[in-house]
Amino acid sequence: MALNVWTVSSGITLGTYPEEIAVNILLPVTNDAGVTYSVISGKLPGGTRISGNHIVGNPYIIANNTTYSFCIRATRGSDISDRAFFLTIIGSNQPVFVDLPGSLPIGPAKQLYVLDSTHISYQIEAFDLNVAAGQTLTYFIASEDGALPKGVTLSPSGLLSGFIEPTVKITPKDGSGTYDESFFDRVAYDFANVPSDGFDSYKYDDVFFDFNLANAPPTTLNVNYQFRVTLTDGVNYAQRIFKIFVVGTDQFRADSTSFNGVADGFTSDATYLRAPVWITDPNLGSFRANNYITVPIALYDNLDVIFRLETTNEEVYAVTYQVSNTDNITGFTFQGNLTQNSAVVTNVTNISSLTVGQTITGFNIAQGTVISSKTSSTITLSIPALGNSPSTTLTAGGDELTVTNVKGTIQVGQYLTFDNYLDGATGTVYRIASVDNLNLNGAFRIKLYSLLEMNIPNGVPFYIGTLSNLPTGINFDPGTGDIYGQLPYQPAITTNYRFTITATRIGDNIEEYLNASKTFTMSILGNIDSVISWNTLPNLGTIPANYISTLAVNASTTVPNAVLIYQLVGGRLPPGLTLNLDGEIIGITNQYYNTFTKTPGLTSFDGGHLTLDQNTATIDRVFVATIEARDQFNYSAITQDFTITVTTPNAVAYSNIVARPFLKLDQRALWKSFINDSSIFTPSSIYRANDTSFGVQTDLTMLVYAGVQTKEAAAYVGAMGLNFKRKRFQFSKVEKAIAIDPNTGKSVYEAIYVQMIDPLEPNGKHLPISITSIPGLESDTITADNSINFFQQTIADLNTNSPFGGPDIPMLTVDSTGYEVSNPNPDTYFPNSITNWQTRLEGVGLTERNYLPLWMRSVPAGQKQQLGYTLSIPLCFCKPGTADNIILNIKYSNFDFKVLDYEIDRFIIDNVTGYQGDKYLVFRNDRITV
């Protein structure tokens, strides 16, 4: 029933409003008590909603001047009434800064100041909800809009970076900085700071007794740089004034009186030390063996810096954390005679951490040893099943370390040391024997190959990694960080080295310091120049989900006769794809979770109908895989990040239906001998030899239907009720076809196949779906019985001359559609032909033509249309230009395909709803299918 609430007719314009300005639009309604309103088609402007009988919110748009059309339904009980409306939003398209105006938090700990002689890298953040597709925001400082500190630049992307140079250095010529003490404009301002505490401003014994000046001049002045940043999307712009407060190191001293107790923006973590910042690239390059080398290691500022070559590379960060009493302690040892399954141990190092009844693991004589008693320096152990054992050494504890706050993956074989991380630690290097995830506060227990040499307290941060090694003959200079020396002779291989250097800036007190570490790599080339380079671009392109992958990566090496091996060392490939050692990326990208292989699919919400950010955001559609190419001699290896974009062109799942014969044993042996003959199918000519979808095809698979909608098995069985019956096909001649990439027009591979003949379709002639009254065919009278079985068969009925056994005895059921109750002598028959098979299967659901093999969707040379579906059995897929030679090999092999009995009694479908993986669809055996 219509609801009388609207005061206007359909197609009403609500007006024009600017974006980002709050709106409160009253809908043209009256008598709307108890009425609710909802949008049933179209959409409101972004940022708005219906509240009561108003449209409210802060609208935003994608492009300037957008008109929205939508239909609002008024509802009261079961009564409804709809009206269409139009609302125009005028876009200002003005970008918006995220950073607040004023001093930027540009310090290393987000302080509102930064020391001079410091390297900075700070991103100014902004956004524009209305930026058009393809546009980018650009930052710049216009003329006369202020200045940045010397050495700092602003990139078009909004990144402030550079090394801040002190711009106002104080020299003796500048005097003490008091009023009128030097010429006008000599320095930026009067910098004198008169002490008020009565103490001098000089270090003890630095000047003679009673020496005094009214003030201590600083070495550099504080400067507050102010500048206006303009932000534009190419049409509109916004501006904001920022400041960078550059501070001299003199301010952060215990005797500084500059601020007289007023901290302003300074915080308790202020320090006069500047963290070292590296300049040198982590990849130092390649160097030839048997040569002198000197490689400088540089910082932005080397003042008061010493360098240290680390023992291990900083790959995994961890913090010590004791879980059990035997964790992180040195343990104890005992040398002596053990009698009556017990031992008394004295001089126990960590006796305070041991308790009576505690089980001690780690003994090299028995597990399950228990502390039976304990005094201030002695423990008595109960050792199971020991007996008398003279002169035995006990070792307990000391080889287990627990850690938490782990960043990275701890692996067996990695190394660690507490040198430079813990006061008093020795330079001992420990190797990891095993790793156990305790599932407790992120803790891991690490078993070491050797005993800890000291107790490790909780809360010690340290790094775990591979050993940090320099090449043989190379030295390290701790004063400059440089590496130098003479590389010795090296065989014809390339050796890669990885090492970590820590730069430490020390303050006036040796306990004051700041560290910065960096891991470097370098390659030493032997007599043979072993260089690998990628031939494949980093972007591998786009691949649709549920289609066979033909992607591959390829590299070249300068080593003669070398074979490259490819491995996935990081990132991930789309689900369902794997990387072969030869660089081929094989498989089918899963759009949905595969219950058969347990392979995950793409992330999907609401059946793929969820959109984010006006459908501009995607989830799990771009995959980055790090692939390593290495020669088989291990001379050298390189890695590269490759990107694969997955599209989902189909929201519907599709399946392929094929047929295979069940050959007799003698025929099977003949076929295997032929198809596995490498003199016929030359390995060097085969395309993707390790990919089951390509390479040499060994199973005589014939495609029946490509890309039929995936449904329950019953849907296919129902479609196969008529026109399907056991059938023989005949072999014809061997042909070839070329697969052409539709994007590049280049040949991808060549398919060699045997043309198959359906005896019911000679010369391409197709029979109708049904025929009536076949001349010369005598029909049997059909009778009904009470059996519900459509087939019945006993062992006595089997015909040993047939691979399938004898024919089934047909029985009728109530769902049989090929018979007529009024006609006991059937005169309608259903031809058992390939075309009729496809016609019946087409009725199951949708069809996706792109599931046809690429060679069937390519245009043969000299023709104007695609080859299309071809009744055939592929023998192999070979590289472009090699098919003719293989066809000649087949011809001269004198293999006779007619010795193979290609008879099929079932289909194989790769997926049905509720089941993923090959499934049989067996034919019926009735008297009306001919």
Structure description:
The chain is built from four helices and 57 strands. Helix content is 4%, strand content 35%. It is extended, with a radius of gyration of 41 Å. Among the domains are: 12-90, Immunoglobulin-like (Sandwich); 283-306 and 471-510 and 520-525, no CATH class; 311-330 and 398-467, Thrombin, subunit H; 336-386, no CATH class; 532-651, Immunoglobulins (Immunoglobulin-like, Sandwich), CATH 2.60.40; 655-775 and 791-809 and 829-922, Cyclic Phosphodiesterase, Chain: A (Alpha-Beta Complex). The protein has 930 residues and is mainly beta. A six-stranded antiparallel beta barrel has the order 21-28-31-30-29-32. Strands 9, 10, 13, 16 and 17 form a five-stranded mixed beta sheet that branches. It has a four-stranded mixed beta sheet with strand order 1-7-6-3, with no helix packed on it. Strand 56 (906-912) and strand 57 (915-922) form a beta hairpin.
